[in-house]
Design brief:
heterodimer, A: mainly alpha, 20 helices, 73% helix, 3% strand, globular, B: mainly alpha, disordered N terminus
Chain lengths: 509, 667
């Protein structure tokens, strides 16, 4: 209990904001100081997130380190943060990838570094906040905060078609989240109507033991589903993702894939399932079918992508399909696997986008057809790219395998047919990844790359510094998945218990 | 402790620290070798092999101690030695350990893996001496040894699967070693992908086992699954299904029809790799898996019939293709398919010990033949086409003699190794009531002698067709390559007699009996007396007769020692059998079929789906957006530009929707 008394969750969440405010005070000419401030803020958040592990007790049910301050008492809205194993691993994922992304931005971002880093740090605040908020209104605020900086990052520092991509991204996500806001309000009204008081009407801990009316559940779940499914993204709501990825700067893509896609899946696990368990049961078969489609469809479409980023984007659709499958199969190993897969996908796909960025830095191109033969001039790059290619196709010994396998195991337990369909993706994922790798790394050096001459250098120390921690994480989680599984075991059983036996609320109809 | 205290009784299940260290060293040594070679191998230049070879020599020593302890001393009893390292996956009720087991079956596998592995490492010193990427090569080889040893030591299905994928990775890396060559990169990818087809089955099989008995530990699964069947907790089809799913994995890794297509292409890798991975060790993994799972397969005779059928069909199909190939390594690759087919046929008829016996002998003589072919290729400066060889007998005498031993061994000529193991397979097939397996097996035996001596004749005998430029520079390989050849030749000559005689009651039978005893009993295979002057002697005579006939046919057409080949006779035969020749030469057109089905048709489907994604799904999204925008045109007057108005609008809108909800909710 060395850290008792320190509002650590608030520190983690707002350390990046402090950094952003400090940067705002620094004149833009002092870019060195700005970078240093940004990186320091991100590292402070990272260290603070690791400090959460010190007092965390994985064997305790419910939330820990809860911080609660009244905010809008009239409606019972509070500033309330809390932690369980699921949020803990996702917060650490966020702080890790954010620090790496900021470091990775120092080379590629050529203009308006100050505004860029401020946006990035605010983005981090929103992401961490989403994973820690226990008040639905606060959750919604953080959820929307995320949107603004990402809109700017794609729209200002993105590629040629950035305006189209960023508008599509924002409008698409906004449609979903506004409906979610309505659903949040509806649940609060319903709670207030039943209890006669606003106290706790937005408090997740109160709401999750409140049995909502099945009709409300069905509609509210639908609204939450739309918001979360767009974010994941689930088939057929995924088409914003390839566009956003292609236009986003490298670090934007990294955070988008590694953390933002997890918001939706987290929303399902944290809010949609416990709040609306009956509706979740009703919706589950349809969502499982959509997940299976996403898994296979995303992989097949990835096969024929001519652009490296689009290929990784479609692979994300396929991989995230495993996450939603694992969530909605309502089985212990399946849900554990889904959460592990969220972390793995964050690490591995984040790394893949970093690596695509490395090649883009040198060639200003991502067309697979123009690449070829990178193994000879850039052996270190080829080796690391190969490493993450293998990690992404779920090679055992690396992290991706365990998550995928647990989801398959859980799915088979419930529906062998669904598991059989999902398992076929191990052929497809190997096919699109290895084919891509062959065309980019193997063979003779392509004329296009040869034309770059001495510009085609191997990875710089800074670039190596960004991917090495991810190599370590990929191996560590492959060899010792217990690092994550032990943390999430308790909340997983809680969520599943809630889904299996929905409580009828004290004042429910 | 006073010295006179009696030593404590060995507690059952307790494992001495020495034994633990021994088992772990088998895994750790090659891994260290891999890590060090990968990190600093490049700086070692021409001596990049030092760490890797040293690691494997030490590994071999440790393995031999373990083999001695297990097989000769019997130190670990029938249950074997079990070492728990740590709990790998703790996911609620699903837990998987990193745990190793050594029993007689593992020990026999260790003999092949460690010995051939070490010899291939030594051989590679010479073979790869001039390749600038040799440090990478030795690093990969060490990684492979780590993975393969993990495979035979794994004590549960999931850890076995991990190793299964890792050996596949090493195969990918080593087949694609010369990555600049497009054909090598393609072959590497093809090998991995075809294996993954089998892995779908394997994965589902593992998952099905866990959902049935709640464990993946070998010992428990082999006890609980048959029990579940006996008590009626699961039905027969359930057991058959699990076995067939596991067999699907075995078909991929051991390249059985129709998943055999990757192995011939895998010859793109350096020849030592072909010897080690694609002949002596990795491709045996499927055989090992089925043999290891014998308590399950014994409960599913229907699945065993499938195993036998696939095996014997692969044996004859591959042999028929080996007839006409002219690439020396491809002939050997098809021969490997064929011999693996024999092993599966043996497993399928329930002759488990002969299957492992053949795995062992084949590991030695096929490793020898591949390394020999590498020495030939080395001698004629990277030429692999046998039509451009010939007359090499005296130029590379050691290679010739050792390969001759290997060829006679694989052809089944007594008293060489292949004779004993192949005869056991054929004889048991017949005696266990699988006359069809026996009959096809006999035909394959005839074919084997023929194609092997076609290979020998085209390579070593008759006039030289070597490129005149190269001709004067033909030379025998360095000592580092010939010594492993000689060692393997000796092994190929004596290992059958040493382990397999007297027939069906040799030392190997004694070792492996405890592993397969239960399965044989379940299948009702009573071990009758060996009748040399009865059925057994007759079968022995027939199989030996056809083997000799095959060899003699090969001699007749393609020459032997100083006997001249008969190219006219070959030509006449080819003309007479034109369609069959084309079919064999075209490898039964499997590659064309796969290309059509998966590359072309699959590509078409993928492109169609992408079109659907861009034009239909995304088109709908954009269509809705455009519709909103155009209808918004009429409402433009509302756009005052004042934020307050927008805020009001949003709030009002939300209020309306929220009220709507309440109406619905309260109804």
């Amino acid at each position: 209990m060395v850290l008792s008394g320190v509002p650590l969750l608030t520190v983690v969440t707002f350390a990046p904001l402090v950094g952003a405010l400090l940067i705002a005070l620094v004149p833009r000419q002092r870019e060195g100081l700005i970078r240093w401030l940004a990186l320091t803020a991100a590292v402070v958040a990272f260290v603070a997130s690791l400090a959460l592990l010190v007092d965390f007790r994985p064997d305790i049910a419910g939330f820990q380190a809860v911080e609660e301050v009244g905010w809008i008492p009239a409606f019972g809205i509070e500033y309330k943060l809390g932690l369980d194993g699921i949020s803990l691993v996702l917060v650490i994922l966020t702080t890790t990838l954010s620090a790496i992304s900021i470091l990775a931005s120092f080379g590629p971002i050529k203009s308006r570094m100050k505004e860029y880093l401020i946006s990035f740090l605010i983005l981090e605040v929103g992401l961490i906040g989403v994973f820690l908020a226990l008040d639905l209104f606060l959750f919604y605020i953080f959820w929307e905060i995320v949107l603004v900086p990402m809109y700017l990052i794609i729209g200002i520092w993105g590629g040629t078609n950035r305006i189209y991509a960023t508008l599509k991204f924002v409008l698409y996500t906004l449609v979903g989240s506004l409906l979610m806001l309505v659903a949040i309000l509806a649940t609060a009204f319903s709670f207030q109507a039943a209890t006669g008081s606003w106290a706790g009407a937005f408090d997740f801990e109160q709401l999750r033991t409140f049995g909502f009316d099945p009709g409300l559940q069905f509609l509210a779940f639908g609204a939450f589903f739309l918001a979360f499914a767009i974010k994941v993204p689930m088939f057929p709501l995924h088409t914003w993702l390839p566009d956003a990825h292609v236009e986003a700067p490298t670090a934007g893509s990294v955070i988008l894939a590694a953390v933002m896609l997890k918001l939706g899946a987290y929303g399902f696990i944290r809010f949609a399932l416990p709040l609306f368990p009956q509706a979740a049961q009703e919706w589950a078969p349809a969502i499982i079918v959509l997940s299976l489609i996403a898994i296979i469809y995303g992989a097949i479409v990835a096969l024929v992508q001519p652009d490296l980023k689009k290929l990784v984007a479609y692979s994300s659709v396929s991989h995230m399909g495993f996450v939603t499958l694992g969530i909605f199969i309502f089985q212990e190993q399946g849900l554990q696997g889904a959460i592990l897969q969220m972390v793995n996908h964050g690490v591995i796909t984040g790394a893949l986008f970093l690596l695509v960025g490395v090649i883009y830095e040198r060639t200003h191109d991502r067309a697979i057809a123009k690449m070829g033969g990178l193994a000879a001039p850039t052996p270190v790059y080829a080796a690391i790219f190969g490493f993450f290619m293998l990690a992404s196709l779920g090679l055992p010994g690396m992290s991706g395998f365990v998550g995928e396998f647990l989801v398959l195991l859980g799915t088979f337990d419930v529906s062998p047919i669904a598991a059989a369909i999902a398992t076929f993706v191990i052929i497809l994922s190997a096919a699109y990844l290895m084919w891509m790798f062959q065309r980019v790394v193997f063979g003779e050096l392509s004329d296009f790359l040869r034309g770059l001459g001495h510009h085609l250098t191997d990875m710089t120390p800074r670039e190596l510094l960004t991917v090495t921690p991810l190599v370590g994480l990929t191996l560590a989680l492959g060899v010792a998945p217990g690092l994550v599984l032990d943390l999430i075991a308790m909340p997983v059983t809680e969520v599943l218990a809630r889904v299996a036996a929905p409580l009828v609320g004290a004042a429910g109809p | 402790m006073p010295f006179f205290t009696a030593a404590p009784e060995a507690v059952p299940g307790a494992v001495s620290a020495t034994d633990q260290a021994l088992v772990l060293s088998l895994i750790v040594l090659p891994l260290i070798g891999f890590g060090l070679t990968a990190l600093i191998g490049r700086r070692l230049g021409g001596r990049a092999w030092i760490i890797a070879v040293a690691a494997i020599v030490l590994t071999w020593l440790a393995a031999m101690v373990l083999v001695y302890q297990t097989l000769f001393v019997g130190a670990f009893g029938e249950a074997g030695l079990h070492v728990l390292v740590y709990e790998w996956i703790p996911a609620g009720a699903f837990t998987v350990d990193i745990a190793f087991g050594v029993d007689a079956l593992t020990a026999v596998m260790l003999i092949v893996v460690a010995t051939v592995g070490m010899l291939v490492h030594i051989y590679s010193i010479g073979y790869m001496a001039h390749d600038p990427g040799r440090w990478r090569f030795f690093a990969y080889l060490n990684l492979f040894m780590f993975s393969m040893l993990l495979l035979v030591l794994a004590d549960n299905f999931l850890l076995l699967f991990v190793a299964w994928e890792l050996v596949g990775l090493c195969s990918y890396l080593l087949v694609g070693f010369w990555y600049r060559r497009r054909s090598a990169a393609l072959a590497a990818k093809k090998a991995f992908l075809v294996n993954r087809v089998g892995d779908v089955g394997f994965t589902l099989g593992i998952v099905a086992i866990w959902t049935t008995v709640g464990t993946l530990d070998f010992g428990q699964v082999f006890q609980l699954l048959p029990e579940a069947l006996a008590t009626g907790a699961i039905e027969q089809w359930h057991m058959i299904g699990i076995c067939l799913l596991l067999f699907a994995g075995a078909m991929g890794k051991s390249a059985q029809f129709p998943l055999h297509v990757w192995l011939p292409d895998a010859m793109e890798g350096p020849t030592p790799v072909s010897a080690l991975i694609h002949a002596a060790t990795m491709v045996n993994a499927g055989v090992y898996l089925v043999a290891r799972s014998n308590p399950l397969f014994a409960q599913a005779p229907e699945a065993l019939v499938v195993v036998a059928a696939v095996g014997i069909f692969t044996a004859i199909m591959a042999a028929s293709i080996a007839f006409t190939q002219t690439d020396i390594k491809r002939v050997l690759a098809y021969s490997t398919l064929s011999q693996l087919g024999y092993m599966f046929a043996a497993l399928g008829v329930g002759a488990f010990i002969p299957a492992i016996f053949h795995l062992l002998t084949h590991g030695f003589f096929k490793g020898l033949l591949f390394l020999g072919s590498g020495s030939v290729i080395h001698a004629v400066h990277d030429e692999q086409d046998m039509d451009r060889m010939g007359g090499l007998r005296k130029r590379i005498a050691i290679t010739h003699l050792t390969m001759l031993v290997g060829s006679l061994a694989i052809a089944g000529i007594p008293p060489l190794a292949g004779f004993f193991s192949k005869d056991e397979i054929l004889a048991e097939s017949f005696k266990l009531g699988f006359a069809w397996v026996w009959f096809i097996g006999i035909v394959v035996a005839l074919m084997t002698g023929f194609y092997m001596f076609r290979l020998m004749g085209k390579t070593f005998y008759g006039p030289s067709h070597v490129d005149p430029e190269v001709e004067p520079r033909i030379h025998e390989s360095p000592r580092s390559m010939t010594v492993p050849l000689v060692v393997l030749a000796v092994a190929s000559a004596v290992v059958g007699l040493a382990l397999g005689f007297p027939f069906e009651n040799g030392i190997l039978h004694g070792w492996l009996e405890p592993v397969f005893h239960g399965a044989e009993e379940t299948l009702g295979h009573a071990g009758g007396d060996y009748q040399l002057f009865g059925i057994d002697g007759t079968l022995l005579l027939i199989s030996t007769g056809v083997s000799v006939a095959g060899v003699l046919l090969g001699w007749r057409f393609f020459g032997f020692l100083s006997r001249r080949p008969q190219p006219e006779a070959v030509e006449r035969l080819t003309q007479r059998l034109r369609p069959a020749y084309a079919f064999s030469k075209g490898k039964w057109y499997f590659d064309e079929l796969n290309d059509l089905l998966f590359v072309r048709l699959g590509g078409l489907v993928a492109r169609a789906l992408w079109w659907f994604d861009v034009h239909i799904i995304d088109g709908t999204v954009n269509g809705i957006a455009n519709l909103t925008r155009s209808s918004g045109g009429g409402l433009r007057q509302i756009q005052t530009g004042h934020v307050q108005n927008y805020a009001l609008g949003i709030a009002a809108g939300l209020l309306i929707i929220a009220l709507g909800y309440l109406v619905v909710v309260t109804r």
